From TrEMBL:
SUPFAM superfamilies referenced in this protein's UniProt entry, alphabetically: Family A G protein-coupled receptor-like
Record-given protein name: G-protein coupled receptors family 1 profile domain-containing protein
All residue ranges annotated as the G-protein coupled receptors family 1 profile domain in the record: 6-255
Keyword Cell membrane among UniProt keywords: yes
Topology in membrane: Multi-pass membrane protein
PROSITE patterns: G_PROTEIN_RECEP_F1_1, G_PROTEIN_RECEP_F1_2
Organism expressing this protein natively: Staurois parvus
Signal peptide stretch: none
Amino acid sequence: MITVIGNLCIILAYLFSLNLHTPMYFLLTHFSFLEICYISVNIPKMLSNLLFEHKIISFYGCAVQVYSFGVCGGTECYLLAAMAYDRYSAICHPLLYSIIMKRVVCIQLLIGSYLVGSANSLLHTVLTFTLPFCGSNKINHIFCDIPPILTLACADTMINQIVIFVTSICVVVGSFLLILVSYVYIILAIVRIHSTSGRKKAFSTCTSHFTVVTIFYGSVMFMYLKPESSNAIVQDKLVAVMYTAIAPLLNPFIYSLRNKDVKIALVKMYHKLMVSKKHLSES
């Protein structure tokens, strides 16, 4: 609930604050919406399973969960890359920023992120759930994820493993390299700024995004690009909790507490709400 409310506050702050109607906050708003979807895919079912002795999910329910989770995860990778490109444009090309990051470009980046996430997730879901399952039906994980599901298949999963590795390189590592290149140019541009206050201001616009990238990519890369190990089941579950529950919980606080514009917008929105509530009570 805290995660949903925190991300919803950022969305509402953008909608009701004209000073936030910039490319950076446009992308941040959609990132917050994606975080709400991301946590809504797995966490409600996981929490309900904690209340019951028999932890059950249907075959098709598991397939929907895998697909939805994949869409959110893949989209988030390239949306974070789009946000890094936005910061690169703002710091390295400030005079051309409004032209480079015009509305249509932001929409194209957003649609492209969703297309990559959807296509990647559809490929994995189809390959996974067309396999024969004739043994155990117990998934040793906190939600329906592809690696633990593949251990239940009665057929050779080598093709699935190869596809997971290749697409992880394209989606996860590919988007991370785009972010890395953006930050290399950003750092080089900031170093060339002569004033200390100018460098500090430039760094402050990137710290929130860099923190989110570190948490998200660190846990995802550890989960999907590490070598297989029979002793890593508990470790995998802990890492999965990090990027499915903890990261979406921390993100709205990271962006709001370290961002002056968002804090001002949230305070204004709160005051407007209180005034409206007072007028209603008086009438």
